[in-house]
UniProtKB/TrEMBL annotation:
UniProt-recorded name of the protein: Cytochrome P450 98A2
Lineage, uppermost ranks: Eukaryota, Viridiplantae, Streptophyta, Embryophyta, Tracheophyta
Entry's family note: Belongs to the cytochrome P450 family.
UniProt cofactor(s): heme
Record carries keyword Transport: no
SUPFAM superfamilies cross-referenced by the UniProt entry: Cytochrome P450
């Protein structure tokens, strides 16, 4: 028993000695004083990006935060983000993978969790040159437009229900349905939900896999950050194995369905699963990588779209002036006798600004996924030792008063006054990241968020629930890697177009 106690104590002392040596050797960024063994873990509040932004006010725009014995560096300004994502990108392009991320990604065989190297470069090239090209996005435009129209139809039916007349609806329910149907059709070429909202057997299995993945991914605790405690909290290997097998089984069934359809003369479709299967030999990628890429797209594209649009609608309800101005533009360009299409975006600059402002104030991933230093580098004049984990606080960067006028105000006009790129070229606005790890599907996300906001504004006038003022809308965030509204948005939708324009049009694929 004594030996069992001595070993972890000895390991802890060795780690503490090493960290003391690091502090003497390196000029590390300032930050809150860490506690022995646990570091700052007990000091970090659940909504981490806000916590880190507040610490940056006290310690400066680059801070050290200790997760147990691991140094995490958080930057909170556009200037420092540029140093991380451009000037030192070569040495900061690897991923830090938690034990759960390592298991789910099969130790980085996908794109999101892959380290920067030959595999990442190959898969990234495939995504850029084959999957997310303007040609393919245009070929799948009818899917996005049909699903957004289906959302409009569902909201209209809810409004037309005499029992619900004048009552508020839970906006998130409708947004999640369109995000779910859109991503499964784009990725798998399948719609798991019928027009009545009933999910079929494969769809229930898909939802079960997504839910279980979130559950087991969140099951790990402080031992993730304190290696010598891990023997007390072993990874649930069996649970991860079962989850991986379940995910692979469903995906391979769908892959085989597409393979058989092509053999029977159905031709190659534009869906991502078909594209990857036909490109498998050209890019020399394994089935594991195909499965990993498909689920990367699901992970990156499903929740984030619904989150972004819900935040946008909350801001539009809180700011009736902006809502009215966007609707006036839609009425002027689209009119009241037809519906919006993605081809109209170029003639709707204010709508595009509304989408951009929503993504600025409420990026769905407010803390960029962690980067790992593969060499000693300097950021902001401070040393970042090899092995450190670096985070860009996208939320704080987009609210920096040094580069944004009235940063906390929802004012889309700022993007009419100055065109700011949000696909990784301007470090003031980084909802999709930048540098080697920039999201390859940024344009797809922008298109869908803009389309959903445009249809919701064109078809309906939105107001807060009865007895509630616009400014009372709760803008608090839930903790997590992606940031939902803590209180789901409730609003009253009032139709503003002729009734025949609310019907979904089914398009053959």
């Amino acid at each position: 028993m004594a030996l069992l106690l001595i070993i972890p104590i000895a390991i802890a002392l060795l780690l503490l000695s090493y960290k003391l040596y690091q502090r003497l050797r390196f000029k590390l960024p300032p930050g809150p004083r860490p506690w022995p063994v646990v570091g700052n873990l007990y000091d970090i509040r659940p909504v981490r990006f806000r916590c880190f932004a507040e610490w940056a006010q006290s310690y400066g725009p680059i801070i050290s935060v200790w997760f147990g014995a691991t140094l995490n560096v958080v930057v909170s300004t556009a200037e420092l983000a540029k140093e991380v994502l451009k000037e030192n990108d070569q040495h900061l392009a690897d991923r830090h993978r938690s034990r759960s991320a390592a298991r789910v990604s099969r130790d980085g065989k996908d794109l999101i969790w892959a380290d920067y190297g030959p595999h990442y470069v190959k898969v990234r090239k495939l995504c850029t040159l084959e999957l997310f090209t303007p040609k393919r996005l245009e070929a799948m435009r009818h899917i996005r437009e049909e699903e957004v129209r289906a959302m409009v139809e569902s909201i209209f039916k809810d409004c037309a229900n005499p029992e619900k007349y004048g009552k508020s609806l839970r906006v998130r329910n409708f947004l999640e349905a369109v995000a779910f149907n859109n991503i499964t059709r784009l990725v798998f070429g399948k719609r798991f939900m019928n027009s009545e909202g009933v999910v079929n057997k494969q769809g229930k299995e898909f939802k079960g896999i997504v839910s279980n993945g979130i559950k087991i991914g969140a099951s790990l605790n402080m031992a993730e950050h304190i290696p010598w405690l891990r023997w007390m909290f072993p990874l649930e290997e069996e649970a991860f194995i079962k989850h991986g097998d379940r995910r692979d089984r469903l995906t391979k069934i769908i892959m085989e369905e597409h393979t058989q359809a092509r053999k029977q003369g159905g031709g190659t479709k534009q869906h991502f699963v078909d594209a990857l299967l036909t490109l498998q030999d050209k890019y020399d990628i394994s089935d594991d990588t195909i499965i990993g890429l498909l689920w990367d797209m699901i992970t990156a594209g499903m929740d984030t779209t619904a989150i972004s649009v819900e935040w946008g609608m909350a801001e539009l309800i809180r700011n009736p002036r902006v809502q009215q101005k966007a609707q006036e533009e839609l009425d002027r360009v689209i009119g009241l006798e037809r519906v919006l299409n993605e081809t109209d975006f170029s003639n709707l600059p204010y709508l595009q600004c509304v989408a951009k402002e929503a993504l600025r104030l409420h990026p769905p991933t407010p803390l960029m996924l962690p980067h790992r230093a593969t060499a000693d580098v300097k950021i902001g004049g401070y040393d970042i030792p090899k092995g450190s984990i670096v985070h860009v606080n996208v939320w704080a960067v987009a609210r920096d008063p040094a580069v944004w006028k009235d940063p906390n105000e929802f004012r889309p006009e700022r993007f009419l006054e100055e065109d700011v790129d949000m696909k990784g070229h301007d470090y003031r606005l980084l909802p999709f990241g930048a540098g080697r790890r920039v999201c390859p599907g940024a344009q797809l996300g922008i298109n869908l968020v803009t389309s959903m906001l445009g249809h919701l504004l064109h078809h309906f006038r939105w107001s807060p629930p009865e007895g509630m003022k616009p400014e009372d809308t709760d803008l608090a965030e839930s903790p997590g890697m992606v940031t939902y509204m803590r209180t789901p948005l409730q609003a009253i939708a009032t139709p503003r177009l002729p009734s025949h324009l609310y019907k979904r049009e089914v398009v053959d694929e």
